[in-house]
Amino acid sequence: MIITYDQIDSTNRVAKELAAEGRPAGTVVHAVSQSAGKGQYGRCFNSPAGGLYFSLLLEPDLPLEILPLTTLAAGLACRNVLHQAFNLVPFIKWPNDLYLGGKKVAGILCEHICTPHPSDTAAKVIIGVGLNANNRIGDFDGDIQPLVTTLFEHMRKTVDLDALLGHLTQAISGQVMRLRQDRESVLAEWQQYDFLLHRRVVHVCEERVLHGVGQGITSQGLYRLRDDHGAEHELIGGQLRPQPGGA
After folding, report:
1. CA distances from 81 to 86, 88, 89, 132 (A)
2. Whole-angstrom Cα distance, residue 97 to residue 104?
């Protein structure tokens, strides 16, 4: 079931409310635009009309230690759909962004919830996706315009958002299910499109700032960074980004 709004504050927020009401896995909340789209670590995700903004409710029946990998699986699914549908070559920036031509084209936010509804027997996952599709760069806030791109900017044509929504939700469901069967193959495929691999990166977590080189993900989906002193770190949170001017 797809529930569409012209504008809401956040598709993830509405999806969480629906999950608490007992809505089934497969429910999709879709918005033409969002006034307060949710990004990583509570940041706002700029969501002007023309993009594709949705949240997919899943109940993947995964062990708790594997649930965080749904973010990586969703990113891989979205990356593959854009490549297959439009012959684009996006890369994935750990843990939750897609980059195209060196700029951000999509963000993914996964939230894991245990609802009080009596019919629920397992944790549910809400996978929120914000994709810059038919937007123009001028549609975004001025401070982020140099950092983002859109499908239209690369193809110079608009895409059918309804059809793309169907392709993405189906692909995400398939990749999350694949985690249960063979997470190693999901992670190995993800690694092929790692935007930060062998790049100079900066990691910020509270007061700690690390500079180093991206080394890829672990079998648990953590990101490995080799700092400038040769020590290797496995990152579980914080903000990881390319170092400006770093190769």
Report:
1. 8, 9, 10, 14
2. 7
Residues 140 and 206 grouped into a single domain: no
pLDDT of residue 46: 62
236 and 121 in a single domain? The answer is no
| Same domain membership, residue 205 and residue 98 | no
CA 215 vs CA 76, 169, 173, 211, 228: distances in Å:
18, 30, 28, 13, 13
Identify whether residues 25 and 93 lie together within a single domain.
Answer: yes
What is the model's pTM? 0.91
The CA-atom distances, in angstroms, between 133 and each of 32, 52, 104, 196, 240 are 12, 6, 12, 23, 24
90 domain-assigned? yes
**Residues 67, 131: one domain?**
yes
Question: What are the tens digits of pLDDT across the range 153-170?
Answer: 999 999 999 999 999 999
Q: Cα angle vertex 38, ends 34, 43, to 5°?
A: 120
CA distance 194 to 199: 10
Query: Which residue segment(s) compose the domain that 208 sits in?
Result: 200-242
Q: How many CB atoms lie within 10 A of CB 227?
A: 14
What secondary structure letter does DSSP report for 23?
Answer: P
